[in-house]
Amino acid sequence: MVERRSRWAALIILLSVFLIVLSSSAFAVDKVLDVSRLDQREVWLGEYFAVLEDPGLALTLTDVLSPDIARLFTIPQATTRSYGYTRSAYWLRLTLRNASGKPVERMLEFSVPLISSIQFHQPMADGSYQSLITGNATPFATRPYPNRLFVFPLTLPAHSDQVVYLRLQSVGAMLVGGNLWEPQAFHDHEQIDYIAQAWFFGIATAMILFNLLLFFALRDVVYLLYTVFAVCTVVAISAMSGLAKEFFWPNTTLWSSIAVGISFVAMLAAWLLFMRRMLNTCVNVPRTDWVIKGFIGLLLLFPFGLAYSYQTFILPATLVFFATGIMMLSVSFYCAVFQRQRMALFFLIACGVFMTNILIAMLFANNQLPSIFTSMYQSQRALITYALQIGSAMEMLLLAFALAYRFNLIRSQAIQDVNQVNASLSARLAAREAELIESHEKLRGIEHHQTLSDERQRLMQDMHDGLGSSLISALRVVENGKIGEGEVAQVLKGCIDDLKLAIDSMEPVERDLLLLLATLRYRLAPRLESTGISLHWAVQDVPALDWLDPKNSLHILRILQEAFANIIKHTQASEIHVATRLEKNGVVVSITDNGKGFDMASAQQSGGKGLSNQLRRAKSIGADIQWRSTHEGTCLSLWLPQFAG
């Protein structure tokens, strides 16, 4: 019995010793960082932070300095720690040592830009603490060092230890991590960091402006949707990286905390609208298109919920983000694989790259990412900022290739359509040309027959009115026995002249008035010589008359023949002068004699038809005829228009 009791006592002692050892390990002292012995540009502080959760948000600096609360701090196993979306505040304790004999300056960089509130407490030489309150929900001017991240300059006196406290509280994901920098190394890193940020935003700006110009040039709404998506992406990335707080809205409070969630909602909604248009889902996958519309409507409701209570709605929004990504990947995979859409392949790769980075960031923010993956990154900044920027840049470039392919496809289709239309138009034009040629030949045939008929009718009418009338008159006079042989000869000569005149009008004068006048001269010259009248020909070159056809030529010849006949019969002239000149956009033919002249009024009242026939013929061809007669002679002026009226 005694032996058994001694065994139990020994076991209890061993158990007590184990518990004491375990307790001393659990409440081990913080890991001290000697900043004077740093042999590298930066030190990752994840393993040096001691962490204390404050779920009641009631602890103050005085409380955490008390021994009872101080021993509750723990050192996490993971160097990068995420506590997800929590309403608790977290206290960090960092112990720094300067073992050198001179003061040391360092830069404490807290590498998570979305912490809503950060209280920084640094010990002073008299044992008190200097406190500073800043954060994403406070104005940017509250930061002790102007940077997109939270940077706190530190000065450690020679041969001293300092315990720095930080209190963190955020409406977003609670991420814990930071770096301690040598000042010059930090400034070099800061410059490179901003250059990297500028690289991403430069690419994004170029994409936005290029596609906006394409939209204005082509009026294709798909380029506008891509521009809206790219703008929302830039806003989301700039808000997540802290650049928006520094440059766009430095003095906002609530908006700075919820801008990331709302901008991501807007980005995904714009992406879905862009995908619907790009892949033509309303035609290719009409049933799924209704699901896409439902997701768009659901996403557009979340900004109101996030503005009302960010921490209440951010987890449902995260689930919807994840479901949206799965749905987008599924739709693009179906269109790429089963419908053989080349644009869907670009979209699938771009969506896969970007959604993979978003998924990693979401899992990390909710503390669901295995440590094997987090150890691949030196800090969460590289995980949730650079990864998203690289992913979004790759996504925008891939979608730009998709848009370029779409543009080339539309261009090729347009060229093919134009070629088809041209071929169709050529065939129709050839058919129409054949129809027109056939119609033209028919019209020419009809016109030729009509011309022959009109000319036949004209000749018949002219023969009837001219030669026929003269022959009938001569026949009646001969039958009555009232005319001598000489007079009969004159009548017959007049009939012959009428016949020759009709024949001369049929000669092809090619709109040449002088050629027509030469024909008249050839016919009348012998008769004038037989009567002792000399003919003086003083014509000059005149323009061609486009209306001078056989019908109108006969009218001119009749007018001039009547003038010569009147001179021979009535004026007793010895000379006749024929001349031409240009006047009032036309040509004037004048016939002047040196006879005794006549009175115009008496001639018109005498009942003779010569002058009236001349007036009628001149009017029919749009010409004008005038007489000027004195005791020294008579002048007939026939004005002919150059162009048909």
Q: How would you characterize the overall build of this protein?
A:
The protein has 645 residues and is an alpha+beta fold. It has 4 domains: 160 residues, Immunoglobulin-like, CATH 2.60.40.2380; 225 residues, Rhopdopsin 7-helix transmembrane proteins (Up-down Bundle), CATH 1.20.1070; 60 residues; 134 residues, Histidine kinase-like ATPase, C-terminal domain (Heat Shock Protein 90, 2-Layer Sandwich). The protein contains 18 helices and 17 strands. The strands form 4 sheets. Strands 1, 3, 5, 7, 8 and 10 form a 6-stranded mixed beta sheet that branches. A hairpin with a 3-residue loop joins strand 14 and strand 15. The radius of gyration is 56 Å and the shape is rod-shaped. The N and C termini lie far apart (151 Å). The N terminus is likely disordered. It holds the Pfam family 7TMR-DISM_7TM. Keywords: Kinase, Membrane, Transferase, Transmembrane, Transmembrane helix, Two-component regulatory system. One of its GO terms (molecular function) is kinase activity. This is Histidine kinase/HSP90-like ATPase domain-containing protein. It comes from Candidatus Dechloromonas phosphorivorans.
